[in-house]
Amino acid sequence: MDFTKPPNRSTTDNAYPLVKQILGEAGYLSQFINFNNKHHGECRNDNDLRKSNIILQGTSRQILSKCGARIWWVDIPKSLPTPAVFVGVDVYHAPRRFDPITHKNVGKSSIAAIVVQLIRSHDRSDNVEVYAETREQRAGQELGLGQQLHDTIRRGLQLFQVEPQSCILWRDGIGIESIKAASDDEVPKIRDALASMSLGRPDPVPLSYMICQKRIATKFISVDGKQMMPPGTLVRSLQSLNYETFYINGTCPPKSTAKPCRFIVSVKDDKLEDVELEKLTWSLCHDYSNWAGPVKLPSPVQNAHKLAEMTGGSPKSGETINYRSFVNKLFFL
Predict the structure, then answer these.
(1) What predicted TM-score, i.e. pTM, was given to this entire model?
(2) What is the mean pLDDT of residues 240-259?
């Protein structure tokens, strides 16, 4: 770790892109932490010392979070039946690349990431049980993830050795016009995977299937137009014609107008009627281990987003990472 100020007021070291490429080609995920443009060894006054302490304390929290240590615990609503399975799904749409054979820009395969997280009880636990897989999807075929969801959830439950009592799924990367098609394809496969560990159960495992939409034009500001909505703002007054909808303003940048995330509840079984999905969603926005604070999405979806992006950005659409690190692996962070 270099505590000196980066040269020429740069925010990253010149070796950063090279090291990132070497680690990616070898199949290793990496994280780099910036200490900001400040020389921590030269604190001329109390103000400089205070700023240095703030930066280093925040860096320490990020290091702990990135290594998987919990710096706080998130409360799960008591009305949610446990053991509960949280599933996050996202798809990374890789940019087009030049094909030296055809001399044209062709679409690179997209990467779908599925993250399965288990909550065994409402009591505080020091273990975070997460199972993740990535799958390569051809360009234009990112919606049909039913079989991949079935296989990933089933393998995860087999490794967890648990009979789930409820399942909450957040699905990113779907537009409004594709909700019904994706739900009809994926929900039955998810139910089959949950039933594989509940053979003696007379009724199906209660399921909630939600769509997360980040890239929307909706913004919320005060009546006078001078202030933004604070983090955690919940809006339920804007409803979809066909589905229950709510908005959560997860972040609030100081110099821009934050966009909320729209959550569309496509499926919610009767046994989950007492579960406040808005409260659960907002709680899990604080559970992302890569950041010491709330994020825009619940942790399972944010983990899937990060995994898909890092995997899709590696050579061969993440095949190296798939086969070496993520397929059939169980993580205890």
Answers:
(1) 0.77
(2) 80
